[in-house]
Amino acid sequence: MVRRIPIRQGLKMGLAWVLIFLAIFVVFALRSDFAALGDRLMQSAQGPATPVQQGETLRVRQAMDGHFWVDAELNGETVRFLVDSGATTTSLSTATARRAGIEPSGGFPAIVQTANGTVAVQRGRADRIQVGSIVREGLAVHISDGFGDTNVLGMNFLSSLSGWGVEDGWLILRP
C-alpha cells in the first residue's frame, strides 16, 4: 500500500525546500559581503583604535582580525589606519584624501604592487599626521580608489620613528 501525501502538505514541503536552497544560494553568492560586514561589526565592537601612551612610547593593541589599527589625525580629520609594515608608503583612499584636503600632485599615475594586486596611484603629501603624541609633517602619501575604504600607515611613517616592534599582541611605537 502506497501512502499518499495530501497536496497541500506536499506543496508546503516543496516550498520549504525551495526556500532552504534559495537561502543557501544567497549566503554562498554574498559570502564576501557577509565577511566584510562581519569585519566592520568586529571593528565597531572593538571601539576606537586608540593607542595607549606610556611616557613617549605608544602601545597599540592587536585587533581581533590580527591587524593593528590606529585612529590618527590626518590634517585635522580623524582617520582609521591599518598599520602595515609591508606597505612602503602611507596610502589613502581617494575619499579620505579629499576629506583631509590632500590634493594629488598631478602628472602620470604610478603603478604599485599591493597585497591585493597592481594599483594605479597618485602621489600627494599630508601636511600633518598625528598618531597619539607622534606627529609627522609633510609625509608622502599614495592616493587611489583601488584601496577601497582602507587607509594604510606604511613604512615611510614607521621608519621615521626611533623604533617600533610587536610584543605580546601590542604594537610598540617609539618616537
From TrEMBL:
<dbReference type="Pfam" id="PF13975">
    <property type="entry name" value="gag-asp_proteas"/>
</dbReference>
<dbReference type="InterPro" id="IPR021109">
    <property type="entry name" value="Peptidase_aspartic_dom_sf"/>
</dbReference>
<protein>
    <submittedName>
        <fullName>TIGR02281 family clan AA aspartic protease</fullName>
    </submittedName>
</protein>
<keyword id="KW-0645">Protease</keyword>
<dbReference type="GO" id="GO:0004190">
    <property type="term" value="F:aspartic-type endopeptidase activity"/>
</dbReference>
<dbReference type="InterPro" id="IPR001969">
    <property type="entry name" value="Aspartic_peptidase_AS"/>
</dbReference>
<dbReference type="InterPro" id="IPR034122">
    <property type="entry name" value="Retropepsin-like_bacterial"/>
</dbReference>
<dbReference type="GO" id="GO:0006508">
    <property type="term" value="P:proteolysis"/>
</dbReference>
<keyword id="KW-0378">Hydrolase</keyword>
<dbReference type="InterPro" id="IPR011969">
    <property type="entry name" value="Clan_AA_Asp_peptidase_C"/>
</dbReference>
